[in-house]
């Protein structure tokens, strides 16, 4: 790529003085593109990538330029590294799958592992446990805080059956462990595995995975889940994507105290995703309906959740990635044993992530949850901060 850059500079008969005065190679490339000088634009973007391989904007600009020059294979090769920074392996695999043109192989493997040290102001509250039987006493006495260490690994693999798009097989795995210094009773071990097949044609990608997961929590094997989650993604343009998904989940609790909590969940949702020039933005919604499968049903088992979320990832001049996510959850619970409950949860997460070297990144995040409820014991605030080292492959 250095040769291309030098040769282009030597041979171009009309170099724009205004473009040459720019110090940033990405800005130079954009300037040359406006003038219609694709050779110098290509050379400038390639030089920017040589200087900083993590320059998301340079990757995206070069990929779009390749597309305009009718070079789809080169464009897809550049995109292979665009999203590897702060997106999860599953997100990166999904984005790459429906970005690639049909004649290009979909084969890919992604992984992201992290190890962090953090602080939780209210460890005895688990926002995903709506029964909260196990920490009622602690909640009445006040919140319990602790330092913790957290390790997680996420992997995603896709195998192109034909070698050039079309039918594919895909699997995703998630592993999570949290050790609490002052509250080992609330240590968490969790694992989930997805496996399924799909088909990509043109701008449409369809994927049907089955999944199984298991949770160890409160010093016990808590529950297992299994189900199916069909997923459809449509590329509205080179930068705008629509996703629609459904979910059926069957849950089984292992402890005798939770014997009446087994349930089934049906859900549907969708989202709009926009990726352009170092900016990844999304707007999502989801509806979930839980129905108990045991008689009599336990309290707060039959319920309906409605989610809405928005957020994004923005690369700040190649210095760091700024991550913002906001989620709202409205919860309505069926009346059981004269207990009525309605919740509103606000969930905010902000983070900064920066490349250190060779794929190793530092992530500093803050997470705040507020849940208001007509059931007093379910009203709480929760603050969590964590500093992590993250490795992407």
CATH class of the largest domain: Mainly Beta
Provide the helix percentage: 10-25%
The helix/strand order is HHHHHHHEHEEEEEEEEEEEEEE
User: What's the shape?
Assistant: globular
Assign the CATH architecture of the largest domain.
Answer: Beta Barrel
Tell me the distance between the termini.
23 Å
Estimate the mean pLDDT confidence.
Answer: 81
Approximately how much beta-strand content do the residues carry?
over 45%
Beta strands, count: 15
Low-confidence stretches: 1-14, 82-86, 100-104, 131-141
Estimate nothing, just give the exact number of structural domains.
2
Largest sheet: 15 strands, antiparallel
Would you tell me which CATH topology of the largest domain applies? Porin
User: How many H/I helices?
Assistant: 8
Gyration radius from CA atoms, angstroms: 24 Å
Structural class by helix and strand composition? alpha+beta
User: CATH superfamily name of the largest domain?
Assistant: monomeric porin ompg
């Amino acid at each position: 790529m250095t040769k291309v850059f030098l040769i282009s500079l030597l041979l171009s008969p009309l170099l724009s003085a205004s473009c040459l005065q720019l110090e940033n190679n990405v800005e130079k490339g954009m300037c040359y593109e406006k003038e219609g000088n694709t050779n110098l634009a290509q050379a400038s973007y390639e030089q920017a990538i040589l200087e900083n391989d993590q320059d998301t904007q340079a990757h995206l600009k070069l990929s779009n330029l390749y597309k305009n020059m009718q070079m789809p294979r080169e464009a897809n090769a550049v995109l292979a590294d665009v999203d590897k920074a702060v997106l999860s392996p599953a997100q990166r695999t999904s984005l790459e799958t429906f970005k690639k043109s049909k004649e290009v192989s979909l084969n890919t493997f992604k992984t992201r592992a992290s190890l962090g040290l953090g602080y939780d102001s209210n460890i005895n509250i688990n926002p995903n446990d709506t029964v909260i039987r196990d920490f009622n006493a602690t909640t009445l006495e006040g919140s319990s805080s602790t330092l913790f260490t957290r390790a997680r690994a996420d992997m995603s693999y896709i195998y192109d059956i034909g070698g050039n798009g079309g039918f594919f097989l895909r699997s995703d795995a998630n592993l999570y462990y949290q050790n609490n210094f002052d509250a080992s009773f609330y240590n968490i071990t969790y694992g989930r595995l997805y496996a399924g097949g799909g088909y990509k044609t043109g701008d449409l990608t369809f994927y049907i995975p089955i999944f199984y997961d298991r949770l160890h929590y409160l010093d016990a094997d808590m529950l297992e889940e299994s189900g199916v989650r069909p997923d459809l993604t449509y590329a509205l343009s080179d930068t705008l994507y629509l996703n629609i998904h459904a979910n059926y989940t069957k849950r089984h609790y292992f402890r005798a105290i939770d014997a009446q909590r087994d349930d089934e969940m049906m859900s549907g949702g969708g989202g709009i995703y926009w990726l352009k020039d170092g900016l990844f933005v999304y707007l999502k919604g989801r509806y979930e309906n839980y129905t108990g499968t045991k008689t009599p049903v336990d309290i707060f088992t039959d319920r309906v959740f409605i989610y809405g979320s928005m957020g994004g990832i923005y690369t700040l001049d190649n210095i760091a990635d700024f991550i913002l996510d906001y989620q709202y959850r409205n919860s309505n619970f069926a009346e059981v044993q004269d207990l009525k409950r309605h919740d509103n949860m606000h969930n905010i997460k902000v983070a900064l992530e920066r490349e250190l070297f060779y794929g190793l990144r530092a992530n500093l995040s803050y997470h705040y949850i507020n849940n208001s409820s007509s059931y007093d014991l379910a009203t709480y605030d929760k603050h969590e901060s964590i500093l992590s080292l993250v490795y992407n492959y």
